[in-house]
Amino acid sequence: MWALPRLLSMFISLLQAGLVLVLAGLEYLSGYKAGVMQHLYFNKVHYTNTLYRPGLMVWHVAILLVVSAGVYAFVSRKSTIPRLARWWYAGLTVASAAVFILPFFRAYNGYAYMLMGAQICVALEWTRTMLVYAMKKQR
Hints:
Layout: H1 3-29, H2 34-49, H3 54-78, H4 83-101, H5 111-138
Helix pairs in contact: 1-5, 3-4, 3-5, 4-5
């Protein structure tokens, strides 16, 4: 019973790290491989004109921050999650919001995939936080 939350937490951490490494690798390869660059650029244009339009970006960030604040407040109120994990969760949420807001990231060819990756990382962190909280509460 004690090992299950740790295994789930490590598995989710590995998924997040793998996702970030794949995104970094794609961005690196886009400078050397024309096919990768064309694919990333095409999808960047497609997604920034459909799913990630400037008007919808505000909603993406608002939903991200509201749900993250709700999960953080719920978990912090019970204080069964370690302080370091709560700071990690808050830092990941701020970093994900920065990917959406800062114009620095828009220059990358894999910008659309970065946005998707940020949303997936935050969703995985929500899942980890709630699962670990639920398992610690059962003890």
